[in-house]
Design goal:
The chain has helices at 2-13, 47-80, 84-101, 132-145, 151-170; strands spanning 35-44, 109-117, 122-131. It has 171 residues and is an alpha+beta fold. The chain has a three-stranded antiparallel sheet with strand order 1-3-2. The longest helix has 34 residues, at 47-80. It starts with a helix and ends with a helix. The model is unreliable at 1-9 (pLDDT under 50).
Amino acid sequence: MLSLGLLFAQCASKPYGKKVKEPFQGSSYESNNRFFRGTGKGASNSENIARGKADIQAKSQLAGQVNTTMKQVSDQYMSQNENARAADLSEKFESLIRQVMNTNISDLRKIGEEKYYNGAEYTVFIAYEIKKNAMFRFLKKQAKADARFNKAEQKAIEEMIDEELKKLEED
């Protein structure tokens, strides 16, 4: 009876099971004021498929962070310049962001990769980072080269990006 009570007490103290420490966890692998960072995990019988899954997950996480940040920048611009032109520019800016995220980003760096094999399945962990200021400068360059933007729109986008770069320098 005592052992049954002890067993029940142990189960009650850890209802989710044992905590597992995976690679690339902690503040060194989280986004901060200087970097967008993303991690991914993939598992498969095939090493290449596991690596591909981890790669896609990490890059998707990065793209989501960049997209969210740029949406905030765009919304801030909209609130400061409430007019029809601002709404049109905001849509074009968000389209530019999607286009940039669909291209290979030059400053994307792999900061870690670990592979495990348990005899049946490969598990791969990958971590990437992008310098925020490099990302903003790349966006600025793409905006200058994009024919969809007239001179006034290019200037407005440059001002939005310059404001974000200024914030990064202050941090």
